[in-house]
Amino acid sequence: AIQQILSWRKKPESEAKFPGPKQYPIVGRIHDLPRFSLWLKFQEWAHEHGPIYQTRAVDQTFIIISDEKIAEELLVKRGHIYSGRPQIRSLIDHKIKPNYSALMDRHDMWKYQRKWAHAAMAEAYKYHFYGHVEMEIKRYLGLLLLDPARFLDYTREYCGRVMSRLAWDDATQGRMNGESADTTLHCMSVSGPITNTVAPLWHLPAFINPWYNFEVKREAEQKAWWLNNLRVAKHRFHEGTLPNDTWAWRYFDQLVREGNPSLEQDEEQEVFASCMMGFVNLVGVVTISGPLKFFLMAMGLHPEWQKKAQEEIDRVCGDRMPTMKDFADLPTVRACLKETVRWRSGVPLGVPHQAEQDDEYRGVKIKKGTIILACEWTLNRIPEKYPDGDNYRPERWLEAGWPTYQEPLSRYPNFREGHGMHSFGWGRRTCLGQNIVDDETFVFGASVLWGFNIAQKTCPRTGKPIPIDTQATNSHVILEPNSYQMAFKPRSDERAKQILEEYHSVLGKLKL
Ligand code: HEM
């Protein structure tokens, strides 16, 4: 507070500023920032103050961008300035530790981990993730048939299993992977521990600080779990039983090629490697399960689009289950998925960037340390690019005349290129998961719609559909919708039989 009062006295009156909401002494505008659905407040302010505005929470300045061009100018063209990450109060030293690739500052460790993960992902994409996505979907459909009420659980587990299979050849860790991701996301979100908003509480001494103690335990358990997985995988590599389509195998093979055939490493090196793989593994779960849960919701609420996609699938695949080979022929399925991620963003605030040095933009000085947020929720509702942005309109990707329409439809829309790629962030920090998002969501969407009709559940008392609040989420940085109900019915007895047969055919091959 004293620092602020002194800086007000020093500040020349005329210093140019971006517009923004009225700021109050000391608090700035922290008092009316909601902990849940914060993006709605940012959207409201964007309508009031324009595509770039600034606000303050105590002594931290934020610049909020709601325009693609401005975001590109700052976060891409000036990526050498705006690619840091801000401190999240309730995580410990995440800017420098190996277990937080996406939350580190840009230093050599970040560069190494990012390069490694990018190469591993690109290699696996060449082989469409070695068929694991298609194997896991057969398990998922079987479970959906047997126990449809648990569809939300199974959806997250499907995503966790694909990642754990790719990382360590151990899909059984998929459930734990999802839970661990969820807790980590809670701890790093404004909707999480109160210490993320009332930061001074974080500095209470450890013996009366439940938030700090929780975080120390959470982080230690997660790191120990990752390290154990690495060591098990190393043991299996030595034995010759670790499949070569895992990231762990790729890493050990690299060590061998670098002249370390015995894979001797000290603990620090092992921790580094286990965190590098563990983090990619972890970040790939909820990022995909959130959009998939919203996709099922959208299909239940928009039977007309469900029907269009099913007619397309039936025309192309008939009685066989869809696979990645059908990608080019199922644009309606892809449009429904792409529109889901636009309509209900999985990362609605974007991931914050931080200015690494002083800069000036449009005549306004931006200080080192300023946090820049390109608000994804607002970007997805810019009327010129996304007309009728509040509504679910997959036709914007399918029909000429819409600003986001792109040809050929055998290629667009997708999650790797073309319009709407701002969902995956900006410049040097762009998401590394686009390839797997493309495959995993496509196989999921096409297969579920091939096998099932999805409808809102009816209340047995009123006879009316049970309402779904499509905006109710956990408000994490990467979010999932709150629990909701939906009815799944196999589209025919024949399809149900096929789903069960396919389920049995993979049981022996999958780790359960
Ligand atoms: C629809 C799903 C997904 C969306 C919308 C999404 C979105 C994002 C966004 C907005 C960022 C921050 C970019 C920035 O700071 O400008 C990000 C970063 C990242 N994403 Fe994703 N993501 C998705 C799926 C995935 C998956 C499946 C993986 C991995 C398997 C992944 C791995 C990463 C990593 C490693 C980063 C950190 C990059 C860095 O800081 O250097 N993402 N993602």
Short key terms for the protein model shown above:
512 residues; four-stranded mixed sheet; alpha+beta; two-stranded antiparallel ribbon; 46% helix; Cytochrome p450; binds protoporphyrin IX containing FE
CATH class descriptor name: Mainly Alpha
Molecular shape: globular
Named CATH topology? Cytochrome p450
Task: Tell me the Rg in angstroms.
Answer: 24 Å
| CATH architectural type | Orthogonal Bundle
Number of helices: 15
- Report helical residue fraction: 40-55%
Pfam family, one: p450
Keywords: Heme, Iron, Metal-binding, Monooxygenase, Oxidoreductase, Signal
Family: Belongs to the cytochrome P450 family.
Cofactor: heme
Describe the overall structure.
The protein has about 500 residues and is an alpha+beta fold. It has one domain: Cytochrome P450 (Cytochrome p450, Orthogonal Bundle), CATH 1.10.630. The chain is built from 15 helices and eight strands. It has a four-stranded mixed β-sheet. Strand 4 and strand 5 form a beta hairpin. Helix 8 crosses helix 10. The structure holds protoporphyrin IX containing FE. Protoporphyrin IX containing FE (HEM) binds next to helix 4, helix 10 and helix 14.
